[in-house]
Automatic annotation (TrEMBL):
GO MF annotation list: metal ion binding; oxygen carrier activity
Domain of life of the source: Bacteria
Pfam families associated with the record: Hemerythrin (PF01814)
Keyword line: Iron, Metal-binding, Oxygen transport, Transport
Keyword Kinase: no
Naturally occurring in which organism (per UniProt): Azospirillum palustre
Name used for this protein in its record: Hemerythrin-like domain-containing protein
Amino acid sequence: MEPIQWSRWMSVGNDALDEDHRVLIAIVNKLYDDTNRQDPALIEAILDELIAYTRHHFAEEEAQMEQLNYPTFAAHKALHDRLTRQVESYRDEFRAGGSRISGEEVFLFCSDWLGKHILKEDTRFGEYAGTGAEMAAAG
């Protein structure tokens, strides 16, 4: 188990979205810290922070997708919605005090999802957005 490391391969070619992704990675990486993973109250607080920032980021990203008529917008938004519901579910379990999952499991889920989502889905949108911007400038 390793923390998520930002790489140039994660860049979507949009500075604001890239910065949001760096912030999301930093939040998820708080769950990598062994002390944080052992404290249900800290896990809950980190998940609250992750949910709030994720909502902000997804709203920004989705607005750009709509503006550019991204062809797989609905499917991409569904992925965002599913992640948000899953993280809210984890947070609610920790809030209730009876969580059967560990901080390590939450970290592994979030880091795996975020890494794959940025590398696969968001970079695909970045390529589309770059191509669309180039076509608009040329047209």
